[in-house]
Amino acid sequence: MSVITSIEDLRILAKRRVPKMFYDYADSGSWTESTYKANEEDFKGIQFRQRVAVDIKVRSTQSQMIGQAVSMPVAIAPTGLTGMQHANGEILAAKSAKAFGIPFTLSTMSICSIEDVAKETQNHPFWFQLYVMKDRDFIERLIERAKQAHCSALVLTLDLQILGQRHKDIKNGLSAPPKLTVANMINLATKWRWCMGMLGTHRREFGNIVGHVKGVENMSSLSSWTAQQFDPSLNWSDVEWIKKKWGGPLILKGIQDEEDARLAVNSGANALIVSNHGGRQLDGAQSSIKALPRIVQVVGKDIEVHMDGGIRSGQDVLKALALGAKGVYIGRSMLYGLGAMGQSGVTKALELIRNELDLSMAFCGKTDVREVDSSILLPGSFPPWV
To answer: Is 277 part of the annotated catalytic residue set?
Structure first.
């Protein structure tokens, strides 16, 4: 195996090692994938202002996200089916985040359950991401389970009331565990590391759901269950209800519009995440990095603004911080590492990002990540939207 020097190296390796349907699930967007692609591409138009002869001997990437100390202002984003990228994937990613000193966010649609992650990380606090279902009794029990697992923040996703169409998932017949069709069996025959890992774990279904929802004892199809259970009537009164039920730090994910940002502030949430769901919902929507400066300008003084979408390097992190984000989330970058090399791959992804963040910050004449602002960006190089 060649030396790993970038997130792209991890992506290439993950593509070789992860079954096609699960790699495609992670590495795709909805419809034409224009928003998914823009999330990455729009970072490229932002240029740094290089500085020299500044004392950069002592540097720090340490910061805070919603009052929690972090080794760098990066959290692991909630990603569904993480345990299908690699056996026990959520547990491995949570362990890596714990050792690295950053938050891990567990998805409602995880393979490993809330209880699994809590037990395997010795009840180290992690964040839990909640989807709103029609079954409110299930939601109440899910929130209570997150409390019992010592989750320190709830991330409420607002942009998945209905499921966006992702062509690759339909063509691949996405299911967990994978159905043993001829095409799948041929593909799995080339993924022996993945197969061996899956044979060694009992975690192959949606751990937060199977056995916890009335009448659901097994569940192979993500799309059919979400079509039945995700609640298209979700509104801001539901956010208020969830906030009261939870009673702890609340982060609202999926904000792209200034009006919604103001409503997020009014809801009393602790932070919002500028996000288009990784380009997996509304194709043709604005990239997260384009939307970020407007949201910061409108509500940045009233609420902590985070962002996700398109982060593939420490330089991307630095650009987001320069445009006002107080923290960013990595989803695909983490999944590439996980699919490539398991827990060590997640750790490698985090190391690459922190190293790039540290060095790039220094080249811009800054020694403390908390002091990063738009002054590190080259005047006149900003795209029209900044």
So the answer is: yes
